[in-house]
C-alpha cells in the first residue's frame, strides 16, 4: 500500500484553484452515462448526491433511515464557521486556516485545511440561497457568534438548530433531484459490504431493513458519507443507530483507516444518570459564549450552587486561560473538567459534573435575550433533568461526541481503493487530532458541495469502466458472504443481550481509551476487547429471523463491527506515544498538564492496512509537512 | 416505577394487529419513554420473545424518527415533546399506558409501532424547495432578510417531520406539515420566484397521498413537538388562493 496524498504543487492559496484547472472534465452529455452510489444522507452525503445530480450524473442514494432528513447531522446545534469577516474583527481565510490547523494540534494536512477555509464562505452563500433561516440582525444581515478556539465571531447559526436547518437545506436540494428522477433514493438500506472489481470500487451489498432482503447495487464510483464511529463507546451523543459498518467493511476490503485514536470528547453534555441510559445529550458549545464554568473552591462542597458565594467559586477556565477563558477548545475544556472531578471538586449527585452558570448573562441582558439565543437548549436541559437552568446552573460533564479519525483519503477525497470516495466525518481529513466547534458542518458541506463534485468527475474522466452487472461473480461471491454473516449472527442464540455486550465494551473504552489514556490502560483494553468479542460470538442473544424487520439483528451487526474497530482504536492510541488534541496520553504532558506533542517522532498520519482476520494490521505513515504554520505548543493562555 | 403497558403488535403491513399487555418493572423516573421500552425489550429478548419494533434514532427530539400514540395522545401527555423527550416521571406509578402507532391511511404500519411516512418526503419532492443549483448563487449578504421574517421562517422551519400533526388530526390532515414548509419559503425573499408553483404542487401531492382536509380542529398545533402554529395553515391557504388567481 502506498499513501500518495496527491497534494498539488504551488503556493497554498493557489493549490485548489490550480488543481481545479488541471482536473479533467466530463462532457455534459456524457455525464448521464455514469452512475454514482452515495451511502448516507447527512450533510456530506445529501449535499454530494444533490450536487452530483445537478451536474447530470445518475445518483443512487442510500440511507438506513426511511427519510434522508433523519441523518444525525440534524442534531448539530451551535453553528457553522466561515471567514466572511462580517463582524469586521479581523477574520480571513488564512486565520480560519490557522485556527483550524492549530485547533487540530498540528496533525492535519495544511493543504486540505486551507481548502476547507477557502470554500467555507461559499457554503453560507449556498445555504442562504436554499432558504436556510440563519439568524439576522435588525438590518436584515447575517448574525454571527463565537465558538471555542477562536477569537473572532465567525460562526453562523439558526437558533440552537443549525445542523437541522443546514441538513433540511441539503435535503431540499436532494429532494428536488429525487423528484426530478436524477437521484434514486433507497430507504431503509444498510450497507453491509463493498464490491471491488478489477481493483476499482464498483458496488455495494445492502440489507433491506424492511424485508431483510440482501441486495446488490453496481455503479462507476462509490461515495461513503456514513459518519463517525463514536458509538464504539456505547454512550455517546451519537444517534442510536449511527454505526461504523460501512467504513469498517471498506477497511476490510483494502481502504486504509487513519488515526482511529483521534476521538473527541465534548465538554458540555448532560451527565450520565444511570445504567438505563441509552445515550448522552449534548448542550451546544455556543453556551460557553454566555455561560461561565465553575466548581466550588472547597472539595466535596455539598451546598446548592446558589448558596455558594461568589468568592468561594473557582471559575477555573477563566483563571487558567485568561485570553480564551470559557472558550478554550473542546479537548482542553473536557480535560480540565475531568481533572476537577477527579480531584474531588465535582458537583451534583454523582460528583461527576461542573456548573455552567448563566446568571451573569441573565442579569446583564435579561432572560428574554437568553431565551432567544438558547431557548431550545434550555428547554431540552429542563426536560431531561427537571431542573430550570434559568434559575440554577446547568450541570455538565464531557461525553464522547465526534471522531476525527476515519478512512484515509487523498486530497481528492479518494481512499486507497480507486473509485471509493469518503466524505464528511467518515474520512480523517481536515480536523487533525481535535475538531473545533462549528467545523463539522463546515467540513461535511465543503466536501459535498464544493470538493467532491470536482474531484469525483476527474476520476471518472481519467479512467475507463467496463460494463458491470450486479449479477456478475464478484457480486455474487460477496452477496453470499454477507448472507452467511447474517445467518451466523442469528445462529449464536446465546443468553446475553447485544445491548449488554455493547455496554460492556463501552465501559472498557471509556475507562481505558477515553479522555485520559496510558499504556497500562490501553494494554488492558487490548486484552479485554477480544474477550468481549468472544463472549459476543458465543453468547449473544440475537433473536428473530433474517427475512423481516429485525432491529436486534441490525444492532448485532453493528456491535460486531465495533468489537473489531475498538481494538484498532486502542492499538493506534497505544502506538502514538505523545499527546495531541483529543488523544491525551497521561505519560506525555507538560508540567502545566497540557498535551505534549512529539513532532520529531509523530508528525505523521497513521494509516492502518487490514491484513486478514486474526492478523495484525500494518501501519503506514504519511508524513505531515508544515510549510506555512510552524507547529508550536498550543497555548490558549 | 411500575407500569402496565398495552402495546400494539402487528407483524407486518398486511397482517392483523392486536394489543398485548406487558408489565414494566423497576423503571427509573428519569428514564425516557424510549428507554422504558428498551428495558422492556431487553427483558423480552432475555425471555426469547420478539421485542417491540419502533422507530427512533437521535433521542434528543430533533430527527423526527420516533412517534407513538401514548394514551391517545401523539408523543404522550407532555407539551412540546417528541416521544423520546417524554420522561417516565410524567406518569403515575402503577399507571396503565396504551401505546399505538400513528393511525392514518397515508402512514401504513410496517411493524408494531413503525409506520411508513414516505408520503411526507414525496410532498417535499413535489416542490418543497428553492431550486438553487450548487454554486449558482449570490453572496450571502446580498439577500437581506428582515429579522421578523427570518424569525417567523425559522419558527416554521423547525418542523421535524414526525407526523404527530397527522396522527392527532381527526381528518388525518397533513396541512400543518405542508404549511410549515410553504410558509417558511414564502416568507423569505429567496422563495418568491417559485412561490405560486410550489404551493400548488405540494398541495396536489398532499391530496394525492390521501391526507384529509383541515377543519380547524387545532389538535395538530397542540401536539406538535415544535409548537408550530396553525397560522401557517392560514398563510398556506392564502398562498394557494393567490397562486390560483394570479398564476392560472
Structural classification of chain B: alpha+beta
The percentage helix of chain A is: 25-40%
Instruction: Give the strand order, joined by hyphens, for the main sheet of chain B.
Output: 2-1-5-3-4
Mean pLDDT across every amino acid position of chain B: 96
Which percent range describes the beta-strand content of chain B?
A: 5-15%
Query: How widely separated are the two ends of chain B?
Result: 61 Å
Biggest interface goes to: A-B, 82 and 79 residues
Explain this structure:
The complex is a heterodimer of chains A (637) and B (248). The two termini of chain A are 42 Å apart. The model of chain A has no long low-confidence stretch (mean pLDDT 96). In chain A, strands 6-2-1-10-18 form a five-stranded parallel sheet. Chain A has two domains: 33-262 and 404-602, 3-Layer(bba) Sandwich (FAD/NAD(P)-binding domain), CATH 3.50.50.60; 265-400, Flavocytochrome C3, Chain A, domain 1, CATH 3.90.700. With 637 residues, chain A is an alpha+beta fold. In chain A, 37% of the residues lie in helices and 15% in strands. Chain A has 17 helices and 22 strands. With 248 residues, chain B is of the alpha+beta class. Chain B has two domains: 3-111, Ubiquitin-like (UB roll), CATH 3.10.20.30; 117-246, Alpha-helical ferredoxin (Fumarate Reductase Iron-sulfur Protein, Chain B, domain 2, Orthogonal Bundle), CATH 1.10.1060.10. In chain B, 35% of the residues lie in helices and 11% in strands. In chain B, the strands form two sheets. Chain B has a five-stranded mixed sheet. In chain B, strands 6-7 form a two-stranded antiparallel sheet. Chains A and B meet through helix 3, helix 5, helix 6, helix 11 and helix 12 of A and helix 1, helix 2 and helix 3 of B.
